[in-house]
Write a structure and sequence with these properties.
Layout: E1 3-7, E2 14-18, E3 23-26, H1 41-63, E4 67-81, E5 87-101, H2 104-118, H3 120-125, E6 130-137, E7 140-141
Parallel strand pairs: 5-6
Antiparallel strand pairs: 1-2, 2-3, 4-5, 6-7
Length: 142
Amino acid sequence: MKISITRTDDDFQMKAVNDTGNSIVMDASPGIGGHESGFRPMQLLLAAVGGCSAVDVILILKKQKQHIKHFDVEVEGERDKTEKDYSLFTDICLHFKITGTVDKDKAERAIKLSLEKYCSVSKTLEPTAKITYKLTINQDER
């Protein structure tokens, strides 16, 4: 796996390109001179954990012949500063919102399997962050 990052303005905007040519734009916060014209790196971590787990959950539910009409994940993270001036995620909550003909117990089991066994990003963040989830199916929160 390889990612190439190129600065694209005179400040902090950067374009990251993976080995298959897909790209994302990153930037820094206005507090240090960024322009919020892309994801901040820590936002990418939250997007990564949400995306990684979403792939797992969708794959598991598809194998179980569940019909997903819409699938959304909202990810919120809390950070605390360490003694060394950097901040680590301490709490991350993924809110899965699924509509369709999906059994709640199967969806919940798929989420647990993802977060506890399959999602490499959540396993990477697990040593410093408590990762929790909420599930809403057809607007019925569980």
